[in-house]
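Example 3.
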Amino acid sequence: MTSYLQLSSITKTYGHFTALSDVNLSVEKGEFVTFLGPSGSGKTTTLMIIAGFEKATSGLVQVGGQSITQLAPHERNIGIVFQNYALFPHKTAVENVYFPLQMRGVSRSQGLKKAEDMLSLVGLKGFGHRHPKELSGGQQQRVALARALVFEPSLLLLDEPLGALDKNLREQMQIEIKRIQRSLGVTTIFVTHDQSEAMSMSDRIVVFEKGRIEQAAAPLDIYHRPQTSFVAAFIGESNLIPATVTNASARIAENPVLDSFDYAGTEVLSDGQPVTLLIRPEHIKLSRSPIEGRKNVRMTVETIVNYGDNALVIGRAGDLTMRVRVLGADVVIIKEGEECCISWTPDSVFVITK
Amino acid sequence: MGTSLSKLTEKPNIWPWLLLSPLGIYMLIFFVVPLADVAIMSFTEPRPTLANYTKVLTGALYQRVFLNTFLTAAFVTACCLLVGYPLAYLMAHSKPRTAMLILLLVTMSFWTSFLVRTYSWMVLLGNNGPLIAFLQMIGIESPPQLLFTRFSSTLAMIHILAPYMIMNIYSVMKKIDPALIRSAESLGAKGFSLFRHVYLPLTAPGIANGSVLVFVICLGFYVTPVLLGSPREQMIAGLIGHQIEEFLAFGLGSAMAMVLLAVTLVILTIYHRRFGLDKLWG
């Protein structure tokens, strides 16, 4: 049983530069998958290879068991929403949505009706006669989405579509895109460099770095069980502590500053193995004096960044910089320059071996 | 407080005008005054009546020349578009080297004095020129008269005006967002339908700009039709020159010039209403 969208050993080189090396990915029908990564990590290149605008140097793209590697973009039946929407400025909203149907030989009366229906689905009933420049950014976004979906594509690709919108609108559109995607059940690939967007929208996140897939997993798995230190650092705030395993069977590791302490997980490690330990800032507790039953470390507070409902406290413990997330109310007990105690339990310490 | 503020705002109001004044005075003496003189002459020479305009607007000869001028301008515009559009497309979408080469050829032709270009056509198309020699060589015994015909003047005008069309269309093509084309492809468009439904409409402003520019310049073209064209098929500017130089009919010539000016202004006004004149120069 093969999956719906299958990328097999996709490699893309530009001269000596390798943009993608050996990318393999399976996406199930109806799944919402997000490609996340910094710019230049290969996520957009992968999207363009799926769309057919870039040719892979080697590898195979299959949809529904059929190879589409050799097909031109217009033969692929894939809906794409571009970063700046790419609406046709000389056509009205409804004509834009009608366009893919027109190209498929659907009659004008029938096609325009279908386009109107699609506009209603994305919440733009009655806006059909307007030209793109008479619509707001969010509305243009909806038109682009309607246009990419109206011809019932086999895949929907979204290339950083929310980047140009302001924060409130972006959150609104995240919910909206998710709702539409669910109601149509269309398999969707969403490209972004915004991790909160990826977290809130995806069934699965694929993290790209330097032309490679670092990890592909459900959002919470990515957050709680990052497999590489890049993923741990890229997703959310993190404290990454280099350590050496001193007693693998008892799950104890050692760091020059922190001494020995316990870690969680089920990975089989060996004594003397160098590892990276991840502790999320929200799993660390800040207090005046050590707390019984937890691993306690003394820290000098350097910076406090207030966000209102919570605050990020950054300080130094030996040569380690530690980040602690505290509730807004708790931050009043501490001032910059003061010494305090930070503590955590073994089950919030994750091991990363790569 | 109030006075110092008003002084501050007053200063920038005077300066631009002061800086503009040399040009303003120049334009007044060498453009506005002569033009006004022509306008006055058209009513007063040789006697203060409307006779000149009656003659221009009702005389069969003048009507024919005006019609001929418009048809020629329209034909030249159409040819410039046919030649210019593909060339502009090549310039906008080929590899940098090729694009540079075409751009260089177009601008070189554009920068060469149009008098020089007109004379070059005289050499090329003349009875002792290479084209006639070639026709004779391939066995055409009495090759047709090429120079001093409607053909030669039209050909030269197309050559001289094509760069205006090309540059206008090129600048619009260059600004088309490639994502629009990609998006059209992803939606199922290809080949001619992509061109007709997306590319052509997107380049329409360039076509309109170029066409208006070529048409308007062509309406008033003097040197090329006079030097290369047939004396029996004059254009309006040539006829005006003829009236003034040979018959010293200043009033009649002026009236024709005013009618030509009025027509040109009407075209530009329609264009301005539709697209905005400010776009005409890119």
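Chain A has two domains: 5-230, 237-352. DSSP finds eight helices and 20 strands in chain A.
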